[in-house]
Every structure is written in C-alpha cells, then in structure tokens.
Specification:
The complex is a heterodimer.
Chain A (H helix, E strand, L loop, with lengths): L11 H41 L2 H16 L1 H16 L3 H31 L1 H16 L2 H12 L3 H25 L3 H9 L4 H30 L1 H4 L7 H10 L3 H28 L7 H25 L1
Helix pairs in contact in A: 1-4, 1-6, 1-7, 2-3, 2-12, 3-12, 4-5, 4-7, 4-9, 5-7, 6-7, 7-9, 8-9, 9-12, 11-12
Chain B lengths: L2 E12 L3 H9 L4 H8 L2 E12 L3 E6 L5 H8 L7 E6 L2 E2 L5 H11 E4 L11 H5 L1 H6 L3 H14 L15 H14 L4 E5 L7 H18 L2 E6 L2 H7 L2 E6 L2 E6 L1 H6 L4 H8 L2 H5 L6 E2 L4 E2 L5 H11 L3 E6 L2 E7 H6 L19 E3 L8 H4 L5 E4 L5 E5 L1 H9 L2 H10 L4 H8 L1
Parallel strand pairs in B: 3-8, 3-9, 6-7, 7-8, 12-13, 15-16
Antiparallel strand pairs in B: 1-2, 1-4, 4-5, 9-10, 11-17, 13-14, 16-17
Helix pairs in contact in B: 7-8, 9-17
Classes of the chains: A mainly alpha, B alpha/beta.
Bound molecules: adenosine-5'-triphosphate and magnesium ion.
C-alpha cells in the first residue's frame, strides 16, 4: 500500500531538537535562568514556612479561613481532613505540594491578571493571545515537560514553572471576561467624570470584575493541583512524588494515599476560593466598616441635632 | 445671557469610511440610503445650537433619532466625525485626552437613563465619585457628598448600598452625583424615562425646584413631549440625526417647523383646550406681615407643597419656598418679610389655557390665577401641571366638567 512516507519523510523531531538545542538553549539560557530566581525564592520561602508551622496551628488557621469564607461545615471538614492527612503520615509532602501550588498560583496571578486586563482593553491583543491560550490548554500536560527540562533542567523549580504555564490560561481568560462584562454605562459614568484609565480600572472595573477573576483564580488553582503529579516526573517533590513512586513500585496503597492527599487539598482550597468569589457579590460590611459607620453616623447626627437646636 | 455651550456643524457617522458618508450627505442623500448603500449609520448630522448659562435646553426626538449620540459628543464619550463643540470657548471635539479629562472634571457632569450607579459603593461614595476622581480629600469629599444628598433629600441613606433603593431614589443618587462636583453643565440623558409616571412627575418638579436655586446649564434629553415642554426653556427636536426645530415651548406648539414636529405636538392640543383652572387648587396663601417662618413651613408640610403664595389684602405679594426658608436663618418666629420671599412670581388671568402655563412652570414656583381686581383666586403647582398632561382623556373630561368647562365646546372653538 502506498503512503506519503514512501516518498518524503520529514525529520520534524530533529527540527524541533535543532530549534531548542541550537537556538533557544544557547541564546536564552540566561533569560530562563533569571525567571527561575523569583520562583525559587517564593517557593523555598513558602515551603520552609509551611513546614515550620506546627500542624495544629496550621490546621486551626485553615479552619478559621474556611469558616470565614465558606461556612462552618467546610471548616469542620478542613479539620478532619487535615488530621487525616497527618495520620497517614503525609503532612510534610502535603505542605511541600501546597507550597508549590501556591507559588504557581501567585505567579499565575501576577502574570495573568495584567495580561487579562490588557486583553480586555484591546481587541487586537486578545486576537493575538487567544490562540496561544487555546494551544496552552489543549496541549497534553506531558508535552510541556520536554522543553521545560531542556531549558530549566530538572527539580522543583522547573516543575513549578511547568505548572505555571499549564495553569495560566483560566486566570487570563476570566480576567478579560470579567472586565469586559462590566456594564458599559458604568464605564461611561466613570469616564464622564474624568477618570484616568487607571482610576477607572482600580475603582470601577476591577472591583466589579472581581467575582469573575476569583472564579478564574479558582480554576487556575485546580489546574495547578492537577499538575502536581506530572510535575513530579521532572523532579518536583511533594504528594506528586509520593504518587509516582507508589506507582513505580506497584505500591497501590501509597499511590492512593498520595492521591487522597491531593484531593483533600483540592477540596479545601476550592471551597475557600469559591467562597471568596461568592462573597464579592454581596456587600458584607466588615466589622471595621460597621464600627466606622457607627461613629460617623452618630457624629453627623449629633451635628444635625445641634443645628436643629440652634434653629429651634 | 452668556453663551455656555455652542455646537456647530456637528456630524457623527458610525462606521468605517466617514469621508464618503459625509460627502454623500452633502449631496443630499438620506440616512436610509447611506445605510443601505454603505452600511454606515448617520448618528447626528449638521447639528447647530447654542445653550445659554442657567438654561434648561431640552433635546427631544423619537428612539434612534440621535439624542444620546449628540449628548455623548458633548462630553467626548463619542468623538464627533466633524464639527465644533465649544464649552466656554474650548473645543471638546479637538481636545486631547488630558484636556478632555480636565473639561470633564471641571465643567460637565452626566446623569444616565439607567442610573449607572456603582453597585460596589455606598450611596455617599457613589455621589463622591466625581470628587474622588478629581483628588478631593476624603473628609471634604464626604461633606460635599452629604450636601448633594441633602439637596435631593437622601441624606439619611448615605451609608446604604444603591441596590437597596427604589428606582426613584436611585436616580436621585445619580442626580446628586452630578451635583456634587458643582460643575456648570449637567447632561441628562433621559434621566426619568425608567421611572414610574408618578415618580417621574415628582422628579420633574423637584428638578425645576432645584434648578431655581442652582441655575445650572442643563442639557436634558427626553422622548416625552410633555416633559420637554414643561422643563425646557428651549427645545430642540431631532429627527434622523438632524435638528428640525429649535425654539421655546410656545414656538414649538404654535409654529411647528414641519409635519414631523406638528405630529408630535398634536396631542398637546388638549392642553390648549383645557384651562389653568383644571389643574388649580386652593391658594392656601399666607398673610403678609402676620405669618411667621415657622407657620409657613408647617403649612407647607401639612399641605405637601413646596411653595406658598403670600398675600396682602388678597393680592399676591410674593412666594415663599420651603427650600429657601429651611436654608436661610433658623429664626422660626420671624415674620415673613420681603427678603424671604421671591417677588418675581408668575400669575395669569382666569381662563388661561394650560398650555400657556408651560413657560411659567420652568420657574419651579406655583403659578397664581388672579381675578380682574388682582386678587389671588387659585394656584397651579408645577407638579399638578405634569399631572394634567399625564392623565387620560376620559379623566381629563371629568376634570374639565368639574371645573365647569366643557372640553367639547373648547375643541369646537379652536377647530
Ligand atoms: N456605537 C454605535 N455604532 C453604530 N451605530 C450606532 C452606535 N450608537 C448609536 N448608533 C446609531 O445611531 C443612531 C442614533 O442612536 P442614539 O442612541 O443616539 O439614538 P437615541 O435618540 O438616543 O435613541 P433612544 O431614544 O433609543 O435612546 C441609531 O440609528 C443607532 O442605531
Ligand atoms: Mg438614547
């Protein structure tokens, strides 16, 4: 049977190798290594912090956050689930994974929110980045690993960088969407009073887009967690490594334990970030605001009373 | 009167090739043919008008006639395709971003049809928005916002969120936001269209009342002729992006420039038939030299009126307004003296047609109906005038009969 390969074969793999090894690596190695510096710094810091905080303290703080953002039931879940993680002896790995995931999310937010804002402000820019985002989301996550290893080597930091790239699209997309969804007449109102672009962004667009942006952050977080097993293939530690070694040794129990740890973190963080997103919708007055409002209204009503007395 | 705003030969074409459309317009092609041939929309064509300081200038027209486009060009939200828009001599159309921002901050404020309030801010912070943008400090901002809220009667709601307010109250916040910056010009794009008729009437009356003391230059957009006639010192009527007539309420009704305007004003004939008495109420006047400030305020509160006539031996000598009395000295025992009264008040003889009251209503004061001897018999409140226009023909007939006037007869007389 005839096939096109009989006539011509294309050395595609060689071309890519040539491009990466011959061009990217020699020319941009320095650039890529400087990217590593802040990522490594944040991750190391978070990792040693989480591993330093006593388990009980950490659990209580998480429970408190969950309680404030997502309600009592979620707080109780957080306590039980984290205790379970400790009892299956995965506390340290869990903290490492958490540090990696949070590092990735922090950088996704630092990069993604501004890019999303730019995309919301320019149709042309959106047209350029949309296919890139599509590609980023459709490429199987394994495929990232090859160029990452070539450019950054192996270890936790390259693992986090792969995670950042994989988890970046939702926050960009939803920041863009959130800002575009701000009602036109509110934007017009801001402009009609002479706002600068910056004033409009800070005071009107971002607050009104916050709910959608938080939803994007939630998705980014979940993607980052899902990447933790794959990142472990290139030397990242934490629960992903537990799963991988478990699988490698056909130790189903250990692999499952690692998986359960990841799921537990996912559930807790998901609830908290969803709670945050929902809370943005209603104006819950904080304790501080309530107190301030109390003093303001009492002082102004006192003033009014004085006026009335003078009048009467 | 000083000229505040001047619009000269302003065009707005939506779509790519503006020059082609402009030359097609010059060749006398219509909005429809240009749209059919090129897909470009003519928003506004050859708009020319000037607005004087302290005047309410109403722009009226059907949906799609280009009112919003025109008013948005005045503060640069839409950039004109050609022409000049001069505010105190500065051309908005040619201003760069910085200049435009300066003009917006200092000279223009806008009130929107659907309020456009910020849902994430409290009422006071909404009102203070324009001040915040200008860089006014926090405490001064709050003070000025509260003052503006006081003007629209919403001071107690300063610290609630806008979603908790009714439509009428929300638009008061919108109005207060426009007032807080103390800019000279207020642009109002169908501000009352989204409100219930009753509330709309209240707001119209209140705007006139406010305008009496503020003397702002107001550009007011509406598609409602009654609103236009009563609020407007002058009215421009738009059709297909073109201003077809500019004039006072009387000129528009008496000398419509073309059939389009005439069709608009047809309905208003009923106002020609009805006399002022249909909308009149007891004067409840205060006696000059006897009544005190406190008494005047109490009476107005009881009667739910904004102003009352003061009479001397039955003859009107002035009008006192609630707002003025509350604003100035707090001595409630003082007698109503000349300096507390507005002596430039409108009166008309018996039998005046409702339509002829339009011009007076924009003063925001009640209109007195005086007998031949000059005695005050009845008064017409601006609010009541809106009420008359908003009622259906049947009710109107009943009202006319009550006042001892047969509308059919009147119609026959005018026909
Ligand atoms: N951004 C735009 N792009 C294209 N066409 C537009 C745009 N804005 C307005 N138009 C067109 O310009 C014309 C005038 O619209 P405009 O909104 O000024 O009318 P309007 O008198 O305010 O009507 P309404 O009473 O419905 O508010 C309409 O034909 C409208 O379709
Ligand atoms: Mg409009």
């Amino acid at each position: 049977m005839f096939s096109p390969a009989d006539i011509v074969t294309i050395p595609f793999g060689d071309w890519v190798n040539e491009f990466v090894r011959g061009f990217l690596v020699p020319n941009f190695r320095g650039f890529f290594q400087t990217i590593e510096v802040p990522v490594e710094f944040v991750m190391e810091w978070l990792n040693s912090f989480f591993n330093w905080v006593p388990m009980v303290v950490f659990t209580l703080v998480m429970a408190l956050i969950a309680w404030r953002t997502a309600g009592k039931a979620n707080a109780i879940f957080a306590i039980i689930a984290l205790a379970f993680v400790d009892m299956i002896q995965l506390w340290g790995d869990t903290m490492t994974t958490l540090a990696m995931v949070l590092t990735a999310v922090v950088f996704c937010a630092i990069v993604g929110v501004p890019v999303g804002i730019l995309a919301a402000g320019s149709d042309r820019f959106l047209k350029v980045i949309r296919p890139i985002l599509d590609i980023m989301q459709t490429i199987p996550s394994f495929v990232y690993l090859v160029p990452i290893v070539m450019l950054f080597g192996v270890g936790s930091v390259p693992g986090v960088i792969a995670t950042i790239i994989f988890a970046l699209p939702p926050i960009i997309r939803l920041t863009n969407l959130g800002i575009r969804q701000v009602p036109e007449d509110l934007v017009e109102a801001a402009e009609s009073f002479g706002s600068t672009r910056w004033q409009k962004l800070i005071d009107v667009q971002l607050p009104l887009a916050m709910r959608t942006i938080m939803a994007g952050l939630n998705q980014t977080l979940m993607l980052a967690l899902s990447m933790s097993v794959i990142a472990a293939l290139i030397g990242a530690g934490g629960l992903g490594l537990v799963v991988n070694t478990g699988l490698g040794r056909l130790d189903v129990g250990r692999a499952t334990a690692g998986g359960v740890g990841i799921v537990i973190i996912a559930i807790i963080l998901d609830r908290i970030t969803q709670g945050l997103a929902e809370r943005k919708q209603v104006h819950t007055t904080s304790l501080w605001q309530t107190l301030r409002g109390f003093f303001q209204s009492s002082s102004s009503s006192a003033k009014e009373k004085q006026l009335a007395e003078k009048a009467g | 009167m000083a000229e505040k705003l001047s619009v000269r030969n302003v065009y707005k074409i939506f779509g790519g090739d503006v020059d082609t459309a402009l030359s097609q317009l010059e060749n006398g092609e219509t909005k429809e043919t240009i749209f059919a041939e090129t897909g470009m929309t003519v928003g506004v064509q050859d708009a020319n008008f000037t607005v004087n300081e302290g005047e309410i200038f109403v722009i009226m027209g059907l949906s799609g006639s280009g009112k919003s486009t025109l008013v948005r060009m005045l503060n640069g939200l839409i950039e004109p395709s050609s022409g000049e828009i001069l505010i105190d001599g500065d051309d908005v159309a040619k201003a760069d971003t910085n200049k435009l921002r300066k003009i917006r901050r200092s000279k223009l404020a806008m009130v929107f049809q659907h309020f456009a309030l910020f849902p994430h801010k409290t009422v006071a912070d909404n009102v203070a928005y324009g001040l915040k943008v200008k860089g006014v400090g926090r405490s001064e901002r709050r003070e000025r916002a509260l003052k503006a809220l006081g003007q629209v009667g919403l001071r107690p709601h300063a610290d609630t969120y806008t979603s908790e307010l009714s439509g009428g109250m929300q638009q008061r916040v919108g109005l207060a936001r426009g007032l807080a910056t103390e800019s000279d010009i207020l642009l109002m794009d169908e501000p009352f269209s989204a409100l219930d008729p009753l509330i709309r009437r209240d707001m119209q009356g209140e705007l006139l009342e406010l305008q009496r003391s503020l003397q702002k230059t107001i550009i007011f957009i509406t598609h409602d002729l009654d609103e236009a006639l009563i609020l407007g010192d002058r009215i421009a009527i738009m059709k297909d992006g073109r201003i077809v007539q500019t004039g006072t309420a009387r000129q528009i009704v008496d000398e419509p420039a073309d059939d389009y305007v005439a069709a608009f004003t047809q309905d208003i004939d009923r106002a020609r038939v009805l006399t002022a008495e249909t909308a009149a109420v007891e004067p409840e006047a205060l006696r000059y030299g006897e009544a005190t400030v406190g008494e005047a305020l109490r009476r107005m509160e009881e009667l739910d009126r904004n102003a009352l006539f003061v009479t001397d031996n039955g003859k009107p000598v002035g009008v006192v307004a609630y707002r003025d009395l509350v604003a100035d000295g707090h001595d409630r025992e003082a007698k109503l003296a000349d300096e507390r009264m507005c002596t430039d008040f409108p009166t008309v003889p018996h039998g005046t047609s409702l339509r002829d009251l339009y011009g007076f209503a924009s003063s925001g004061l009640p209109i007195g109906i005086v007998s031949d001897e000059g005695k005050l018999d009845r008064v017409v409140e601006a609010r009541a005038l809106f009420g008359q226009l908003a009622t259906s023909p049947e009710e109107e007939q009943a009202a006319a009969e009550r006042s001892g006037h047969d509308p059919a007869q009147g119609q026959a007389a005018t026909a």
